[in-house]
Amino acid sequence: MKIAVFHGSTREKGNTEYLAYKAVPKDQATHIYLRDYNIQPITDFRHTPEGFPDIHDDQLQLVDQMLAHDILVFATPIYWYGMAGPLKVFIDRWSQVMRDPNYPHFREELGNKKAYFILVGGDQPTIKGLPLIQQLTYICQFYGIKVGGYVIGEARKPGMIVHDNRALEAASTLVSELQ
Amino acid sequence: MKIAVFHGSTREKGNTEYLAYKAVPKDQATHIYLRDYNIQPITDFRHTPEGFPDIHDDQLQLVDQMLAHDILVFATPIYWYGMAGPLKVFIDRWSQVMRDPNYPHFREELGNKKAYFILVGGDQPTIKGLPLIQQLTYICQFYGIKVGGYVIGEARKPGMIVHDNRALEAASTLVSELQ
Amino acid sequence: MKIAVFHGSTREKGNTEYLAYKAVPKDQATHIYLRDYNIQPITDFRHTPEGFPDIHDDQLQLVDQMLAHDILVFATPIYWYGMAGPLKVFIDRWSQVMRDPNYPHFREELGNKKAYFILVGGDQPTIKGLPLIQQLTYICQFYGIKVGGYVIGEARKPGMIVHDNRALEAASTLVSELQ
Amino acid sequence: MKIAVFHGSTREKGNTEYLAYKAVPKDQATHIYLRDYNIQPITDFRHTPEGFPDIHDDQLQLVDQMLAHDILVFATPIYWYGMAGPLKVFIDRWSQVMRDPNYPHFREELGNKKAYFILVGGDQPTIKGLPLIQQLTYICQFYGIKVGGYVIGEARKPGMIVHDNRALEAASTLVSELQ
C-alpha cells in the first residue's frame, strides 16, 4: 500500500507536521507540503456553459500524485475550527477535476482509497475539532473514500505537541496499513 | 442597529445571495461581496519574533466595515461541507488583526456584535451543513459574538433556491433586528 | 400519506407538544403520547443464545401503529442535550423488534418512511440541539428512513414557546406532506 | 485524586466494561455498575408549584458517591448513537437533584470535577459516536465539569473489543490522573 501524506500547514516544521511523522515516518510515504505548490482558489464555474477555464498551476500534478497512492493522510492544523487554507483550496478544486475530461474516473478512483486525518489545534481541539472531522468525513463519503481513523493533538505554541503524549501515542498506531 | 452582510460566494447572483436578500433586503444593510476584494490568504506568523508582515490588500478596509456595524450576517454557499474560500480567508486573517497594534480592541469590539449565518448547499445541507454551523458558532464564541440564528437552504443548481420555500420563509424572519 | 406524531415529553401540554401541533394539527394525524404507554427499557440480549425475552408491555402495539403510517414525526423536548426518556426507550427497543420473528421486514418497512423532528430546548437549542439532530439522522439512516426536515424551538419555561415566532413559523411549513 | 467509573451498560462484562478497565483498573477506582441500582426515570416537575416528588430509589446514594470523587469516568456502549439507558436516566435525574434542598451546592460541586468518556459502538463509532461526545460535553459544560478526554472503541459482538488495539492503547493512557 502506497501512502501519501498531504500537509496543509502554512508553517514549516510545525506541530501538525511533527504529529504526522509519528503516524507516517518520512521515509515510509510520499510527503507533500501543499504550501510549496501553487494552487489557485476555485471559482465556481460548474454551472456556466463554458465550464471551468484551464488553470495553469500545480493542482493537477498534485491530483496525479494523490491518485498514484492508496492511502491518503490529510494533516492540517485547525485554523478557526476548520482546515488550513492550502488543504481547503486543494480539496475545493477537486470539483473542477470531476468535470475535467482528462480525469473521467476521478471519483471512482478516489473511491478505492482510504483516508486518515491528523489535526492539531490549540483550543480544546478534541472537542472543537469534531466538526472538522465530520466535514472531512462527509467529503470522503461523497467520493466513497473509506475513513481509516484520525488523531487530534493539542498544541498552543510551536513545539508544544511533544507534550501531548496521548496524541503522539495514538498517532504511532493510527495508520493500520503501516503495521 | 446597523447590519452588514458578508457574501462569501465566488459566483454573482447565486442561490446564497438570493436567500440572503430574503433575510436582509439590499436597501436595509451594507452588502459586501468578498469576491470583489483582494484578500490574501493567511500565513501563520503568530509565533515568529517579527510577527505578521504588513499585507497590502483590502482586509483592513473590510475589518473597518465590519466593526462599523452591529449585526453581522455571513452568507456562504456550502463548498465541500465548509464555508466558501473568500469567507474563510477573510476570517482566517482575523488572527492577524488580533495582533495588529492598530486594532487593540478587535476581539472586544467583535464581542459586542451579533451574527447570523445563511448557508446554501446541494447535498442534504440541513444535515451535512451542521458541522459548518458548529464551526461558525465556535468562531463566534471565541470572540464573544452572540449567535442570533441561521438558515440553511437547499439548491443544487443556479436559481433552484426559489423552490426551497421553507428556507425562504425562514430567512424572511431570521434577522430579528429587522422586525 | 398517513402521519403519526410520537410525542416524547413526560409533561402534558408542554412547549414541544404546542410546537408539534403547529406542524401537524391534532386532527390531521395520529398523535401518540409515549408517556401514556408502558414501555420497558431495553436490556441488551442481542448476543445471548436465547435472545430477547418476551416483554409484555405496549411496545409492539406502538410499533404496529408506527408501521401503519407513512410519515413519522418525532417530537421531543431536549433533556440534557438528548431526546426525552420515553422516546429513547421506544427507539432502543427497536433493536428487539428487529430480532422478532413476527416482524421479519421491520427494517425494510421503516425504510419506506419519512421522518421529521421537532425539538424544544431551553439552552441555545438551535446550536446545542444539533448533536441530537445528528443522532436522530444516524438512526434514520440505519433504517433507510428519509429525513424530511426538523424544527428546533426555544423555551425555558412552560408556555414560552409561543414567543419563538421563528420556530412556530418554521413548524407551520415543516411537514411538506401536509401542503 | 479519587476516581469513580460509572458503567452504563445493561450487559455484564461487555466490551465497554473491558475498555473501561484498560483506562481505570478495577482496583484503582470505585466502579459503579448503574444496572445494579434502581433508578427511576425522571418526570419533569421542574415547573409545577409543588416541585419534584420524593422518589425512593438509589439515585441519591449514587449522587453521593459521585460527589465523593474527583474524577468521573462515564463508560457506556453506544445505543442508537446515544448513551445507554441507565446512564441517561441517572443524568436526567440530576435535574431533580439541582432542586433538592439537601443538595444546595450540587452544581458547584460538580464544577470542581473532571470527566472522561469511554464509548464502544459497532457502527463506525469513531464518527457516529461524535454527536454523543458533543452531548456529553454540553452536559459537562453546564455544570462546569472539565472534560479530560475520551476514547471510542469499536466492537460489533461480545468480546470483539480485544481486537481494537488503537482504542485499548488509547484507553491505557486516557486518564491522566492515573499517570
From TrEMBL, chains A, B, C, D:
Keyword annotations of the record: Flavoprotein, FMN
Cited Pfam families: FMN_red
Keyword Flavoprotein: yes
Domain annotation NADPH-dependent FMN reductase-like: ranges: 1-124
KW Electron transport (keyword) present: no
InterPro entries assigned to the protein according to its UniProt record, in alphabetical order: Flavoprotein-like_sf, FMN_Rdtase-like_dom, ISF_SsuE-like
Name of the protein in question: Flavodoxin family protein
Phylogenetic lineage: Bacteria, Bacillati, Bacillota, Bacilli, Bacillales
